[in-house]
Amino acid sequence: METFKLLSRGGVKFNKKRFKADMELFEETEIKSSSNHSSVNPSQATLPAELDFFKYAEGGNPKRRQSDGANEVSDVARVSSESSPPKKKTKLDDEPQAGPSTQPHRVTLKGSNPPKCAESFEDASSRYNIPSRILQNLSENGFHSPTAIQSYGLPVLLEKRDLAAISPTGTGKTLSYLIPIMSHLNAPISSSDSEAGKGARALVVAPTRELAHQIHNECLKLAEGRKWRMVLFSKASANTLADKAVRDKVDVIVSTPLRLVASLKNGSLELNNVRHLVLDEADRLLDSEFLEQTKEIIAACSREDVQKAVFSATLPAGAEQVAMSNLRDPIRIVVGLKDTPLPLISQSLTYVNDDASKLPTLLHFLARPYNPPIVIFTSTQPRASSLAEQLTLNNIPNVDCLHAGMTKKERDDTVSRMRRGECWIMISTEVMARGMDFKGVRGVINYDFPTSVQSYIHRIGRTGRAGREGAAVTYFTNDDAPYLKPISNVIMQSGSTVPEWIVKLPKPSKMKRKLMGKIKRDETVTKDGSIGRSQARRRKDMVQGSKRRKQVEDGKSPSGGKEMGSDTE
Ligand SMILES: Nc1ncnc2c1ncn2[C@@H]1O[C@H](COP(=O)(O)OP(=O)(O)OP(=O)(O)O)[C@@H](O)[C@H]1O
Q1: DSSP annotation of 324
Q2: Is 461 near ligand 1, meaning CB less than 6 Å away?
Q3: Do domains 107-335 and 345-516 have the same CATH topology?
Q4: Residue 258, Cβ neighbours under 10 Å: how many?
Q5: What is the 3 state secondary structure string of 279-299?
Q6: Are 519 and 480 in contact, with CB atoms under 8 Å apart?
Q7: What is the CATH number of domain 345-516?
Q8: Which of 175, 176, 458, 463 gets mutated to test ligand 1 (max ligand atoms within 8 A of its CB)?
Q9: pTM, whole model, 2 decimals?
Q10: Where are the domains of the chain?
Q11: Can you name the CATH fold of 107-335?
């Protein structure tokens, strides 16, 4: 791992000449989506156009619009219109678009007496007393107008109502719950005159450590200038908080479920003062892997008046039912079409003959000009490591890898490199699929087919964030073909088209859907193909070269025995 990281910093170009013959064998077949993006003059709005849902043109997928609306007993708030010229679709190797595109969106509200949306942060502040310091922090961080989920979500949470919020990836869900939490906190619990009881008053739960870390950072930005104690629950902070006197003075906790439940179980944490509980990536937290822990956390938040909110870009029916059963008289907000990515992510499917052909296909793509950074998803940790190694061996610069099998330090370092723009290609597993906000990600490649529609939506949502355009490519082999249909439906729902033969594919059975993405794949990403052999030769050369250099450093001749500088050949 360390070796390839060192090698990957070289900034060397892919040797096209060397692999020319191999590359020609593997010309990729691309099936492009045909989403028509349109643009607005960015100077007209302080908010990126995709986030400015109130200026969107009327429209969308008419079929979906009708059927969706028919089932709602709620207010349907359609966004107003602004027409704009069509714009060419974004490809992974395109230059970044000068201005963001617009697509139709709508906001659907369901529930009893939903409050009126907030037109601006100031509007929300005048109605609900958002402290001026929070407004100042929003402005200083470049957040001048609310996104759709913020406009509709803020009043609901500020009125202390329970909320289920479904809004596409990258549309600002984090601030939708952090602003109300901070507005409700008032004086820090540590201040002597605080009436706030003892212990954390707000808890945010997220499925991965990286996401919890990111949310904690957003908390710190928003709380700048206030003396609230915001804790990212980790092994170290759990030890510190084992002291009751310390934990009584904490205002907000952000955590993953595992860590929290461990502390609840050993009695070193109580959540009986929590008034605001947020489940971010709720469908993940309510799936079978986390459900028991999530239930324990909900039960531990024992105050009768605890306000609960669930957020996600996807909420399948089963998870929604569980979520709703835990909420009291909730408001449900859906931005855009449920379980549908934003149309500003151009999506395409690329056929590759078999698993062994994926690496040459990827190398072929990387041999051409492309816009970094890109995120590549594989199905397993060994495959992520193996792919990172293969790219490095092929002289692709600035490759990094992030998966749950790495140490905390390795993971933190990788995320930092990504944030500093030092990583051009991030190879990861599902651990990075949800919530991670690296603003400039230009594209996503699903090297291995996603395991579910939700996984697909979250993975591709690492690009096209905060109003930027992005591109997503999904490789599929013959083995994946039976599972193309659900993904192609998502692509079509978000306004793109897919080839007719895919549209005509039969719907996979329930049984088959369960097997989606669970195809047995090798732990390494290359087999004994011609590329594999040339790489093996290259690897051998590198190992021998490294041995020779070591011998030279040790003062030995590479051929053995003779002094450095001797003529050994
Ligand atoms: N009002 C705003 N104006 C401009 N940018 C915003 C605004 N609110 C949030 N953003 C930016 O949008 C980006 C996406 O926000 P966030 O990570 O909260 O999205 P999300 O909806 O939670 O996405 P995901 O579903 O992937 O978790 C962030 O970079 C954030 O800083």
Answers
A1: H
A2: yes
A3: yes
A4: 13
A5: EECHHHHCCCCCHHHHHHHHH
A6: yes
A7: 3.40.50.300
A8: 175
A9: 0.78
A10: 107-335, 345-516
A11: Rossmann fold (3.40.50)
